[in-house]
Specification:
Shape: globular
CATH architecture of the largest domain: 3-Layer(aba) Sandwich
Oligomer: single chain
Strand order of the largest sheet: 5-4-6-7-1-8
CATH superfamily of the largest domain: Thiolase/Chalcone synthase
Order of helices and strands: EEHHEHEHEHEEEEEHEHEHHHEE
Number of helices: 10
CATH class of the largest domain: Alpha Beta
Length: 338
């Protein structure tokens, strides 16, 4: 049986750093208040004129270099902040990376997007449609946040992370053999940007500037995220024939440090098995898991041979998990990790 094997990794963060002190001066909150609620100390934010595709191209190029290849057969871009409503952003990213003619499309599962895109890339390899796939998670959430919202604005940063998948065997380190994915659209209003889509446009209502910003029901999201990520993690481990105690590192979607700790507690895993960079980058949505992997690899927290659990939760509502034995991956010299 053909398997999709992770063979390269890269990340990119915009150079501009926005500290809690800077955000706090504008919103009337303190660094201590933000850190206590979220674990976030700073985030990277795009300069005007920089788009999601710009970040995706930088991260994608680094992942290709890490894998030692110049191109792949397909590009799957996980993003909730595309460059345009039409067309998708992935074809432009592929073209800028020199891969005109490649399969290229977007996946929008918001903060679960990277895991959904990994599963999609894996299906392309298993189905024989591609020998290799570049999977990118990239978001510029600073473009959909109300600058005056003291609750939501401090949470998010911009960034991109990417991996390369290649055809291999299920026994190889890095093989992605098991996934758990799910959704519950009954709660789409928990995290939403109300305006700009067909529902608002078809109703003949003018675009409301406030409706163009993301809103979030924090308490409901917190409870659902902890429950779904823990449940999904157990499901995928069972499918992979692994016990929870075999997990060496948990790389969860970097939404909130309290969520990550609660998930570890539900799984009865010690907190020192968590890989987290949320204090330095904030919530980067679809980019958060590959950026955390790059950070963990650079700092020695993710090592060859480790059993690594990836789990995420996002708007939709969506959730997903996968597990793999970490392969030998080399980051580029000077890799821009958080």
């Amino acid at each position: 049986m053909t398997a999709a094997v992770l063979s390269g990794l890269g990340g990119w963060l915009p150079p501009r750093v926005v500290t809690n002190e800077e955000v706090g001066r504008e919103l009337g909150v303190t660094d201590e208040w933000i850190r206590r609620r979220t674990g976030i100390g700073r985030r990277h934010v795009c300069d005007p004129g920089t788009s999601t595709s710009d970040l995706a191209v930088r991260a994608g190029a680094r992942a290709l270099s890490s894998a030692g290849v110049e191109a792949t057969d397909a590009v799957v871009l996980a993003t909730a902040t595309p460059d345009h409503q039409i067309p998708g952003t992935a074809p432009a990213v592929a073209a800028r990376l020199g891969m005109t003619g490649a399969i290229a499309f977007d996946v929008n599962a918001v903060c679960t997007g990277f895991v959904y895109a990994l599963a999609t890339g894996t299906a392309l390899v298993r189905g024989g449609l591609a020998e290799s796939v570049l999977v990118i998670g990239a978001d510029t959430f600073s473009t959909v946040l109300d600058p005056a919202d003291p609750v939501v604005r401090p949470l998010f940063g911009d960034g991109a992370g990417a991996v390369v998948l290649r055809a291999g065997t299920p026994e190889e380190p890095g093989a992605l053999n098991a996934f758990d994915l799910g959704s519950d659209g009954r709660h789409e209003d928990f995290i939403i940007v109300p305006s700009g889509g067909s529902r608002q446009r078809s109703g003949g209502r003018p675009t409301d500037p406030v409706g163009s910003y993301m809103t979030m029901r924090g308490r409901e999201v917190f409870r659902a995220a902890v429950s779904r990520m823990a449940e999904s993690s157990r499901t995928v481990l069972a499918e992979a024939g692994r016990d929870v105690t075999s997990v060496d590192r948990v790389v969860g979607h970097q939404a909130n440090i309290r969520i990550l700790r609660a998930v570890a507690d539900r799984l009865e895993l010690p907190e020192d098995r968590l890989i987290s960079n949320i204090d330095r980058v904030g919530n980067t949505s679809a980019a958060s898991i590959p950026l955390a992997l790059a950070d963990g690899l650079a700092e020695g927290g993710v090592k060859e041979g480790a059993t690594v659990l990836l789990t995420a939760f996002g708007a939709g509502l969506t959730w997903g998990s996968t597990v793999l034995e970490w392969p030998e991956i080399l980051l580029n010299e000077g890799e821009m990790t958080p």
